[in-house]
Specification:
The protein is built from 21 helices and 30 strands. It has 651 residues and is of the alpha/beta class. It has three domains: 299 residues, Rossmann fold; 149 residues, Rossmann fold; 125 residues, GMP Synthetase, Chain A, domain 3 (2-Layer Sandwich). Strands 12-11-8-6-7-14-15-23 form an eight-stranded mixed beta sheet, sandwiched between helices. Strands 5-4-17-16-18-19-20 form a seven-stranded mixed beta sheet, sandwiched between helices. A hairpin with a 5-residue loop joins strand 24 and strand 25. It is globular and about 70 Å long.
Length: 651
């Protein structure tokens, strides 16, 4: 990425948290306990003595035996809480199930069809023990990898927790992926046991998951046992000796199971990051540091209290679900909402009905979801009582300022601070994020979490005071991934070789005069227009700032004159406005917002953009269409029909 990025957006609006939210926050209480009086003082104290900060938080969890040293940092290799004996399950489940919160609801599950299932901490503990003993019966032991391919049903966290309890690693594959992705990950991990379901519903249609798995099992030679959850009551083929129903397998199991004593550095799980093509990268996280990092961030960023109903509206198949649906909420002993279906099914009021009906107090979702609801209009959230909400969150990609404002106004009622978090599968926890005591700027992830030394640098590794550059992390953090499974050389080369001893995130960012970070997207999402290096995120934000626009995707097309010209694909909100010559209106709007150099040469109005089933816009597909190239495999898209529309629009 030669040179620095031009900075075009200049967001000046500031939103301060109410005194009530700030003064009653967990971080404020913690600061008072340690004699700290301000946000900046907290950041300075943690930067000066990171060991003190993490020791204090690690001490809030229970250790089988204490650690001797907080961190050993030999870049790029980190060890945290050395010699400490620990298991995340003892902290997330065992201590709660036999303590004062044993009868508290751990999970409220709502299926796409509206069915409700609840699990208390003690009930969850019992279910985990039953399945942990089942895994042991099937020969799973400490260090083995169990591959899981389940929809958003309670058996998914139960299976993960059962693996961790006996010291096995889990490898969860997002159920929206094609079965080939499951095959690739099974083979990379060498799993002997796989877990799936007969099927699940998506937008009213039954997806026959077990039948899809059967197509890849002949190419997974290590698999000896397939456990199948009977979720939809489907008649599916079951191979004798290999396939077993979950409910039958647990019937004769003991509902008590000893939790394996693990070293803090023992592996907890593998999560693959490469989508559905190419050699998957198995990001490896461990028990001790991962648990401390996610516990600290959920406690301080989202300020969860005993009375909260927490809804992280992600899928457990992604790191957001691992960290902030399964492990961190259970570490804190709070109640979480799980939802099987899509946000707008059977109508765009589904999300908001669930907030109202379950009394959700803290909601964490993706900018793509927010922009989808912007398209449907504020009339939908306005129909429901959202007054239970006190805090909102954003995750997955940069949130543009206008989506931030819409979310704040129409979902949060103008009173809920938005925690816009930046982090990755590799980081395990939030690294750049507001806290409930922070002043907020729409579109900014604010500042690094305490102890995190983040920077924006040029190609030589020199810190940039203005403009965009490589986003890097210069300090270790507890929940950092330790390696790529079976491929440490790739781990070093991909993340630590460009700037030795410094973590290269692969994202582009800038830092403003107040030290606030603005994430500008991936390094490969940068346009080179007439000598100007422009972030696609900034152009998209300027387009979406028009009141009639819900979503936009911007890509570059080679140009002999400019190097690249900007092509914009735009989805409009439901509107009755006269949109004659709207393409020209948008071009002029961008010129006014961020300057003529960023104005798109081509604007196409479309009804939808191609997205993954996690809601991310597939710019790779859009780039291929613009360049007249083969779009490749689109079978994993949530809406493959959008590809045809874009192709027609660009003919």
């Amino acid at each position: 990425m030669p040179g620095k990025l031009d900075t075009l957006l200049d967001e000046k609006r500031i939103f301060k948290p109410s005194k009530e939210i700030s003064d009653e926050s967990n971080i404020h209480e913690w600061m008072l306990k340690h004699g700290l009086s301000s946000y900046n003082e907290l950041l300075e104290a943690a930067a000066q003595d990171p060991d003190w900060f993490w020791d204090e938080l690690a001490g809030e969890l229970e250790w089988f035996s204490p650690y001797e040293k907080t961190v050993k940092w030999d870049p790029p290799n980190a060890e945290w809480f050395l010699e400490g004996k620990f298991n995340v399950i003892h902290n997330a489940l065992d201590r709660h199930a036999k303590g004062p919160v044993k009868d508290k609801t751990a999970y409220i599950w709502e299926g796409e069809s509206g069915e409700i299932r609840t699990l208390t901490y003690h009930e969850l503990y019992r279910e985990v023990n039953l399945f942990a003993n089942t895994l042991k019966k099937f020969g799973v032991s400490k260090g083995d990898v169990v591959s899981i391919y389940l929809p958003m049903i309670p058996e998914l966290p139960i299976a993960m927790l059962a693996c961790a309890k006996i010291g096995a690693l889990h490898s969860v594959v997002f159920s929206g992926f094609w079965a080939k992705a499951f095959k690739d990950r099974i083979n990379d991990a060498g799993s002997h046991v796989a877990i799936t379901a007969d099927g699940f519903k998506r937008r009213g249609k039954v997806i026959r998951l077990k039948e899809a798995v059967d197509t890849i099992l002949p190419k997974t030679p290590t698999i000896e046992k397939v456990v199948v959850v009977e979720h939809e009551g489907l008649d599916v083929p079951m191979q004798e000796g290999r396939d077993v129903w979950w409910h039958e397998a647990i019937t004769e199991m003991d509902d008590e199971c000893k939790t394996e004593v693990m070293d803090a550095e023992d592996p907890l799980f593998i999560l693959y990051t490469s989508g559905t093509t190419g050699k998957p990268k198995g990001v490896l996280h461990v028990h001790g540091g991962y648990s401390v990092g996610i516990y600290a961030t959920l406690k301080f960023v989202f300020d969860l209290k005993d009375s909260d109903v927490w809804w992280c509206a992600a899928d457990i198949g992604w790191i957001t679900g691992h960290s902030y649906i399964v492990y961190a909420p259970l570490l804190m002993g709070v109640t979480s909402l799980l939802y099987e279906g899509t946000p707008d099914y059977p109508d765009p009021g589904r999300f908001w009905r669930m907030v109202q009906n379950h009394g959700v107090t803290v909601l964490y979702t993706a900018p793509t979801t927010v922009r989808m609801f912007m398209k449907f209009g504020e009339k939908w959230p306005a129909r429901y009582d959202l007054s239970s909400l006190r805090l909102l969150g954003s995750v997955g990609e940069p949130i543009n300022p206008e989506a931030w404002i819409w979310y704040h106004k129409h979902v949060g009622g103008g009173k809920c601070p938005i925690m816009d978090t930046w982090w990755q599968t590799e980081t395990g926890m939030h690294l750049i994020t507001p806290l409930p005591i922070s002043s907020l700027k729409p579109g900014s992830a604010v500042k690094p979490f305490p102890t995190i030394d983040a920077d924006v640098v040029d190609d030589r590794g020199t810190s940039l005071k203005s403009g965009g550059g490589h986003l890097v992390i210069k300090s270790p953090w507890p929940s950092m991934f330790r390696t790529l499974y079976k491929d440490h050389e790739r781990y070093v080369d991909a993340y630590w070789s460009k700037f030795p001893g410094v973590y290269l995130s692969g994202d582009v960012a800038r830092r403003d005069e107040d030290g606030y970070f603005w994430i500008q997207g991936r390094e490969d999402d940068v346009l080179n227009v007439a000598g100007h290096r422009i972030s696609t995120a900034e152009v998209e934000s300027s387009i979406v700032s028009h009141h009639a626009v819900a979503e936009a995707a911007v890509v570059g097309r080679p140009s002999s004159l400019k190097g690249e010209e900007i092509c914009a694909f735009v989805v409009l909100k439901e509107t009755r406005e006269n949109l004659k010559n709207f393409q020209e209106v948008l071009k002029d709007h961008v010129k006014i917002e961020i300057g003529p150099v960023a104005s798109p040469s081509i604007v196409k109005i479309v009804s939808d953009l191609p997205k993954t089933r996690s809601g991310k816009i597939m710019r790779r597909v859009i780039k291929a269409i613009v360049k007249g190239e083969d779009v490749g495999d689109v079978s994993t898209l949530a809406n493959p029909e959008a590809v045809s529309e874009l192709q027609k629009a660009f003919e």
